[in-house]
Design goal:
Blueprint: H1 56-65, H2 72-95, H3 122-126, E1 130-136, E2 142-148, E3 160-166, E4 179-183, E5 187-192, E6 199-204, E7 209-213, E8 221-224, E9 236-243, E10 251-257, E11 261-267, E12 273-280, E13 302-307, E14 314-319, E15 324-328, E16 348-351, E17 363-364, E18 372-373
Antiparallel strand pairs: 1-2, 2-3, 3-4, 5-6, 6-7, 7-8, 9-10, 10-11, 11-12, 13-14, 14-15, 15-16, 17-18
Length: about 375
């Protein structure tokens, strides 16, 4: 039924070994059509008008004959809209006393300085005392002056005064201060607190630093430095309130004296000024351009002081010898001058060209870092 039979071999060629055939085809979109068009103004015209003196009369007559174009319904709607607001403001002005006693002066004021008040204390004038300091309070309405003596006389035992006038108060009497503070020694410097209007500080001839509260009529003295190893030993010619550079931003009191010390005080709330920090201007620790030949530790008497408005660590000091010193509060060098409980530092960095006499006032510019007035 089944038998073996041998057939011829069949060969199938492999297709993957052959070289593949490629065919290129190209497709192109329809040609894009483009068009450009420009628009240009073909005509231009300019018109100018100039008035002439010869035609003024004719123009005035022509203007009078032409009635102004006014949209009366629209104007009426606007007036009805703003009427409640205008009536409200007029009623406020009727009840306000802001301009009581104010006289309108329609005459142009001259550009020269005019004297508004001449303030003085009769008792101080009778004793021939001098005004040693003037200061405005934080509100700008109260001015204070201190009385002392700048020439002859026994300054250490002579009593003096601190007087204040409120220029905004009705019935101001230039010959009668609103507040008179009696001081046991001559007051050489004065400064109001920058944020507390009634607080005022003063430096005395005997070296003390006092703080008064002008709102307390019975006993205005609220703090004093006293006389000790930490305080000044000579007249205090400058007092100034200065903001602390610490995180607390506390306002401390700074005093400068002819004993060469610049001391920083803080009120402890118990009627005492506590020494926080200090500096001393000693001749031996001055910059190299100061050429003075002295023996021992001699201090420079500080007569004026001003802190920079742009860098609170820099201040300018004027001294009795005529020198103007640039100083810094960030110095670490200790002063060779003997001190009390708080070590004093030597703040001088360099000096400017000296004067032939004492420097009584210096002021740093509030706008420029390197400009000051002396």
């Amino acid at each position: 039924m089944f038998t073996d039979e041998a057939q011829e071999a069949v060969t199938v060629e492999s297709r993957w070994r052959k070289t593949p055939e490629f065919c290129d085809a190209v497709c192109q979109t329809v040609e894009v059509r483009r068009a450009e068009a420009s628009v240009q103004i073909r005509r231009s015209a300019e018109i100018s008008t100039q008035t002439e003196l010869s035609d003024r009369r004719d123009l005035s007559v022509a203007d009078r004959s032409i009635e102004p174009s006014v949209d009366f319904p629209r104007l009426a709607r606007f007036l009805r809209q703003v009427e409640p607001m205008v009536i409200k403001e007029l009623r406020k002005n009727i009840q306000s006393h802001a301009f009581d006693g104010f006289d309108v002066n329609w005459v142009d004021q001259p550009q020269t300085v005019s004297c508004l008040y001449t303030l003085h204390y009769p008792e101080a004038c009778e004793r021939l005392l001098h005004v040693t300091g003037v200061s405005w309070n934080a509100t700008g309405s109260v001015i204070a002056c201190s009385y002392g003596r700048l020439q002859d006389g026994d300054w250490s035992t002579e009593k003096s005064y601190v007087c204040t006038w409120n220029l905004d108060r009705r019935g101001l009497n230039p010959n009668r201060p609103n507040v008179v503070i009696y001081v046991s020694s001559a007051v050489m410097s004065l400064a109001f607190h920058p944020t507390e209007p009634p607080l005022i500080a003063g430096g005395l001839y005997n070296g003390e630093v006092l703080v008064w509260n002008c709102s307390k009529t019975d006993d205005p003295l609220i703090a004093r430095s006293g006389i000790s190893e930490d305080t000044h030993r000579e007249p205090v010619y400058q007092v100034q309130w200065n903001q602390s550079l610490s995180r607390s931003n506390r306002i401390n009191l700074l005093s400068a004296s002819t004993d060469g010390k610049i001391l920083i005080w803080a009120m402890d709330g118990k009627g005492q000024l506590v020494l926080q920090d200090g500096f001393a201007l000693v001749v031996q620790q001055m910059p190299r351009n100061v050429k003075l030949k002295v023996r021992g530790s001699t201090s420079f008497g500080v007569t004026a002081l001003s802190f920079s408005h742009l860098d609170k660590t820099v201040f300018i000091a004027g001294v009795e010898g005529g020198y103007v010193l640039k100083c810094s509060t960030e110095v670490l060098t200790l002063a060779s001058l003997s001190s009390g409980s708080v070590p004093l530092k030597a703040p001088a960095l360099f000096t400017f060209s000296p004067h032939c006499g004492p420097v009584h006032a210096v002021a740093c510019s509030p706008f420029h870092r390197s400009v000051y007035e002396q």
